[in-house]
DNA sequence: CATAACTACTTAACATGTTAAATATCAAAA
DNA sequence: TTTTGATATTTAACATGTTAAGTAGTTATG
C-alpha cells in the first residue's frame, strides 16, 4: 500500500520542524544570524573549545557547511579559531566575547518561545514527543 | 533556564528526520532524484493536475524552489506543465508517463523501508509519534 | 474604462545541504 | 624510514532553503 504524502513520517517531521522554527526565525533574523549559525554559537556557548568534528556532530551540521559558517562567524568576531599543537589537521573553535553577548541577548527571547510552544502542546505531550524522537534517533546507532 | 542543545525540540526533529531520510536517500539516489523532487512526483502521483501553489503546499516546498524543481523534472519528462485558460497566471502540473514508471519502481522499495522503520519503532509508538507531530503542526493554524 | 490592490509565479542573491574529490596531517605497517 | 592507510578539514559543484523584489495577470473600485 502506498504511503500517503499526508501522514508520512518524514513529511510530518519536516512540517513540525517548520512550525516550530517559524517562531524562532524572526528573532534570529533581528540579531542577524541564521538558524545554523545560531546552533553553532549555542553549542560553543555550552562548551568551548571544541574541534570542528565535535561541533559539527553536536550542531547537526555537515562539515562543508560548517567550514563556511565558521568563516562567516569568525569574520564577525562571534567565535574564534585556533590550531592544535599535537595535531596539525584539527581546528579548535571557541565562543568569543561578542558571541557570548549575542547568546545573552537571544536566549531570553528564545526561552520564552520554547515555553510558549511547550505550554501550547502541553507539558506531558511535549516530553512524550521528545522521548519518541529520541527513540527514533537512537535507531541510527543500532 | 537555558535550553540544552541536546534535548531541544527543533534539534530533535532535525535529527529524527535525518535518521529516517538516511534510509531513503540511497534508493532515491539510485533512481536519480532528490528528496524534494521525489516529494513533488509523489504528490502529483496522488493527484494530477495540480497548480503550483497547491503542489508547493502539499510537498512542503517553497515557491522559488518549486520553480526550479519543476523545470528540472519537466526537462526529464517526469512531469508536464500546462496553462490555465481562465487564469493566465497559474501553471498546472501533472505526472507524466515516465514519472508514473518511476513511482512504480521506487514505491515498493520505499514501502519496505517505511515498514522497517515502523517495525523497529513499534506500531503503537509510530502512530503515537505521528499524532503528536500532527498536533504540533496544527498549532500553526491557531 | 482606468486605476489600485491583489494573486501566482518567477528571478535574484546569498546561505546551507549534499556528495565527491582534494589537501594536509597523522598513524601504522613493511 | 618509506609506504600505506586513515583522519580532519577544505574545496568544488550543484540542488535547495530563504527572503526580497520583479513580472504578468486578475479582481475590485471608482
From TrEMBL, chains A, B:
Pfam families: MarR. The keyword Ribonucleoprotein does not apply. Residues 6-138 form the HTH marR-type domain. GO terms for molecular function: DNA binding; DNA-binding transcription factor activity. It comes from Aminobacter aminovorans. SMART domains: HTH_MARR (SM00347). It comes from the Bacteria. GO terms for biological process: negative regulation of DNA-templated transcription; response to stress. Keywords: Plasmid. Coiled coil: none annotated. This is Transcriptional regulator.
Amino acid at each position: 500500500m502506498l504511503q500517503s504524502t499526508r501522514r508520512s513520517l518524514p513529511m510530518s517531521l519536516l512540517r513540525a520542524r517548520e512550525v516550530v522554527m517559524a517562531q524562532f526565525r524572526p528573532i534570529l533574523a533581528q540579531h542577524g544570524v541564521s538558524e545554523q549559525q545560531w546552533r553553532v554559537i549555542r553549542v560553543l556557548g555550552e562548551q568551548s573549545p571544541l574541534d570542528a568534528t565535535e561541533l559539527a556532530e553536536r550542531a547537526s551540521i555537515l562539515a562543508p557547511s560548517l567550514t563556511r559558517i565558521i568563516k562567516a562567524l569568525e569574520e564577525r568576531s562571534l567565535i574564534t579559531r585556533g590550531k592544535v599543537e599535537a595535531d596539525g589537521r584539527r581546528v579548535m573553535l571557541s565562543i568569543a566575547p561578542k558571541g557570548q553577548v549575542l547568546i545573552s541577548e537571544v536566549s531570553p527571547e528564545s526561552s520564552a518561545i520554547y515555553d510558549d510552544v511547550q505550554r501550547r502542546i502541553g507539558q506531558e505531550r511535549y516530553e512524550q514527543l521528545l522521548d519518541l524522537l529520541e527513540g527514533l534517533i537512537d535507531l541510527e546507532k543500532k
